[in-house]
Amino acid sequence: MSKYVVIEGLIGVGKTSLCRLLQRDRQAKLVLEPCEINPFLASFYADPKHYAFPTQMFYLASRYQQQLDLLQRNLFDSLTVADYLFDKDRLFAEQTLNDDEMELYNRFTSLLSHHVSTPDFILFLDAPTSEIQSRIARRSIEAEQVIEADYLDALRERYYQLWASWTRCPVYVLETSALNYVDSPEDADFLCRLVDGYLMHHPLPGAPKPYQQSSAQRVLFGI
Question: Is 126 a catalytic site residue?
């Protein structure tokens, strides 16, 4: 039976790297967020007020097309992994659009939301903001270098608000500060086995449990 897993997290936390690892080591079909081809993205980071709406609508259209493809995914693909959740589109919209733009956005999403795949589970990768900023700097994507800590903190807060009310599938939160699954074979093996365990409903000993809002987790990430 085909499985569908979403890897989520803030910009630069390592979502796509983990998805590519699962593609390589678990022969997963890969679904990547269409961020690199968004013609408005660099302008948005430099001037969010004027470029938020076209940036958001480009993402919405691109993500929705991928969701249609997911609904028709090949049953012979035993595992599909995506580096974003369709519902996270709204998190960015709420943070960047003004009231009039948000009203128009809502009109579009009300027509689209009935044609979206639900994952078997979501793995949310997180790390302190300072660590995420270091990772953003290391990967040297020019458009991302102007992203501020306050923006990342506010976005993380919206993610946790979403997880606190999410009921459609399990959400697991993994702190990744001490993990380097790109360069460390041991860490890569651990992440693959972690995903295997959740898929087989036999989590690794000590693996994160389904997310429940708690003060301990919020203190950990400084929010």
Answer: no
